[in-house]
């Protein structure tokens, strides 16, 4: 498997991996690599914006002379922003793990059995690490 040259492949603007192509060929890997890196950059920008927003709110709150409900609303907004940033950070961990799997040649293959996860599933959920059957079994055991 040519796992390094996927980083340099320039895909057509509307390219989508096809089942007629070899599974996780360099073009597939390039597609998922670019998709995951784009998602990663978007999340990092959102997190930076969220942290900036919290900083601004905190500075503003220091000068608030409003009533208790104004302060409570501002604190609630901060809490929600922090929760969303935390959720995004968990997603970043999963994206980084997927990028690592692309790098080591295991992307698109089950972490349990090593079987192909399937192109349809990977297109629907690029962070998938198990086949549908394995995922269903895992969910049942939870």
User: What share of residues is helical?
Assistant: 55-70%
Q: Outline, from the CA principal axes? A: elongated
Query: What is the first-to-last residue Cα distance?
Result: 35 Å
Q: Please identify the top-level CATH class of the largest domain.
A: Mainly Alpha
What is the averaged pLDDT score?
Answer: 89
Instruction: Indicate the CATH architecture of the largest domain.
Output: Up-down Bundle
Structural class by SSE content: mainly alpha
Number of distinct helices? 4
Largest sheet: none
Would you report the number of β strands? 0
What is the CATH topology descriptor of the largest domain?
A: Four Helix Bundle (Hemerythrin (Met), subunit A)
Question: Top keywords for this entry?
Answer:
142 residues; mainly alpha; Four Helix Bundle (Hemerythrin (Met), subunit A); 4 helices; elongated
3D structure, described in words:
By secondary structure, the protein is an all-alpha fold. The chain has 2 domains: 1-7 and 23-107, Four Helix Bundle (Hemerythrin (Met), subunit A) (Up-down Bundle); 110-142, no CATH class. 63% of the residues lie in helices and 0% in strands. The protein has 4 helices and no strands. The chain has helices spanning 26-62, 68-104, 119-124, 132-141. Helix 1 packs antiparallel against helix 2. It is elongated and about 65 Å long. The mean pLDDT is 89.
């Amino acid at each position: 498997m040519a796992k390094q040259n996927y980083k340099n492949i320039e895909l057509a603007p509307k390219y989508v991996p096809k089942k007629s192509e070899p599974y996780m060929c360099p073009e597939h890997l390039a597609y998922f690599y670019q998709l995951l890196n784009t998602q990663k950059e978007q999340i990092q920008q959102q997190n930076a914006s969220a942290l900036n927003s919290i900083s601004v709110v905190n500075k503003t709150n220091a000068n608030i002379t409003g009533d208790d409900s104004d302060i409570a609303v501002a604190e609630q907004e901060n809490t929600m922003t922090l929760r969303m940033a935390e959720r995004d950070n968990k997603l970043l961990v999963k994206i980084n793990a997927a990028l690592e799997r692309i790098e080591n040649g295991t992307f698109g293959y089950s972490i349990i059995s090593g079987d192909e996860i399937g192109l349809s599933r990977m297109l629907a959920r690029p962070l998938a690490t198990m086949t549908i059957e394995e995922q269903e079994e895992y969910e049942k055991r939870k």
